[in-house]
Amino acid sequence: MIGLRRNVGADWRAYEAIFQRLSFAGFSALDAVDPAYKLLNLLAAGLGFNVWAVMYCDAVTYLPDDILAKVDRASMAVSLETRVPFLDHRVAELAARIPLDLKVRDGRGKHLVRKLLYGMVPRELVERPKAGFALPVGEWIKGPLRPWAEDLLNPEIIKSQGWFDADMIASRWRQHLSGQRDSTAAIWAILMFQSWLEAQSRQAPASLVRTQAFAG
């Protein structure tokens, strides 16, 4: 998704900001890691910023890499076998052919699904606020996990690695600690990358770490 900003301008950057991806750190090499991002670049260049393109982005990045990964880990941790009926290939193929005005109407998504459910369950069950299952990671990295986080976000180390804009990360980290700005998602993404990079450096010479990052 980060690579998209080179092709379609401010609208895609706004879309990235919603999910607080790695773009704030100046990391623009995801299209070299995963072929899906190269495909997204081509798609965006042809379609520009529109609802179809955004839905496609979610379907090939956010859905498998975030939502489904979390569901699988949480369910397997307690020995539950989960099913995702909306992702049955026949349902997905049908959904791809449904006109956009039956999906999004008056600024709200899932229009057709809502209409179907109104006849099956009480309306208040459909229209209630969305509830997530987020962990208080933002507070953890300001509290008990702060020493670990600050070791990984050390500006000198980040500069020497050459992957991220160390000054920008330091600024966002200060803002997060002060409560000026909640940067949980973005900072956590950096911490996960730095943690992985640190593990790689312990297993291989430093000169090979960058090669391994883009292997395969």
Topology:
Elements: H1 5-8, H2 10-19, H3 30-33, H4 35-47, H5 51-77, H6 89-97, H7 111-118, H8 123-127, H9 137-142, H10 146-152, H11 155-161, H12 166-178, H13 184-203, H14 206-213
Helix pairs in contact: 4-5, 11-12
Structure report:
The protein has 216 residues and is mainly alpha-helical. The protein has a domain at 135-216. Helix content is 65%, strand content 0%. It has helices at residues 5-8, 10-19, 30-33, 35-47, 51-77, 89-97, 111-118, 123-127, 137-142, 146-152, 155-161, 166-178, 184-203, 206-213. Helix 4 (35-47) runs antiparallel to helix 5 (51-77) and helix 11 (155-161) packs antiparallel against helix 12. Mean pLDDT is 77; it is low at 1-9, 18-33 and 206-216.
Number of helices: 14
Largest sheet: none
Q: Flag low-confidence runs.
A: 1-9, 18-33, 206-216
SSE topology string? HHHHHHHHHHHHHH
Structural category = mainly alpha
Coarse morphology: elongated
Quick check: average pLDDT? 77
- Kindly state the number of beta strands: 0
Give the % helix: 55-70%
